[in-house]
Amino acid sequence: MLFQVYGDNAVYQWIGWILVFCCLIGANELARRTKTGGIIAFLVVPAILTVYFVTIYTAAAMGADWALSNPTYVHMTSWFHYAKLYAATAGCIGFMALKYQWGSIGKSEWFKCFPFVIVAINILIAVVSDFESAIRAWGTTWVSTEGVTLMGGWHNVFNGVAGLLNIACMTGWFGIYVSKKKQDMLWPDMTWVFIVAYDLWNFCYTYNCLPTHSWYCGLALLLAPTVANAIWNKGGWIQNRANTLAIWCMFAQVFPMFQDYSVFSTQSVNNPNVNLTVSIIALVANVLALGYILIRAKKQGVNPWTHEVFKGTKDYEQAIARAE
């Protein structure tokens, strides 16, 4: 098994997983369907949380007991969590600018490459974290600032490389569209080929570097946008992913006890052989995805990053049919 989902808390762990999955899907729908929902979720709430975070750390630096014992301060101290939260939120805001064509930026052709840039940044943040574990504790373990035991080794290297390849698997950087109902920013060329490769890589990242959170942020959080894209929001995967990621990061940053010390907490097995196996699967998936993309691009005689290469495929045609 990948996770320690057994014993007295197993029922709560499954209930927690189902709740996270369903709530993320619901929150994404509220945020994407209306401009007001998006503004509240990705402008108002992050602004309030920023004040909250600054207040906590300022008070902690002054020695205030309430701040020093605050769950966010004690359990969510890693640079990664804050980098991920604000990078994901920046993505959501940029996607809304494109979707609603805010100002000259939202209407400009050059800004259509923003989704590629922000997703690449998000991937690189995780890649750096994987390589950090490899450097800190090759063949052994190290304890993060949050007290989590992490292993370093080839699994980090393999998955770090998979992440770099995953960036190259994003095709048609300028092929960004708006749905007819103005509810979604669409990237039709981001088909199942990329989504599967990304999900495997990102799950492996969480499994390697967030072993106490991976049950939720490595499974529920990844499946929520993927299911939405597959069933009712074709072409909107990257928007779904950014929305759910930002919302989850906000929740986890304020309520770390849900994952870290409650009946819902779920650990991975933290076995180096399991980590290595998952990492190899992620690397192979991304090698195959990039190879397939390059073959399609060569047959079509196009640059896969400046041109769309999946035209004619079922995924692409279903997504582009939703565009204006």
From TrEMBL:
Keyword Transmembrane: yes
InterPro entries linked: DUF5692 (IPR043747)
Residues passing through the membrane, by range: 12-31, 38-59, 79-98, 110-128, 157-178, 185-201, 213-232, 244-264, 276-295
Keywords associated with the record: Membrane, Transmembrane, Transmembrane helix
Name of the protein in its database record: Uncharacterized protein
Organism for this UniProt entry: Bifidobacterium parmae
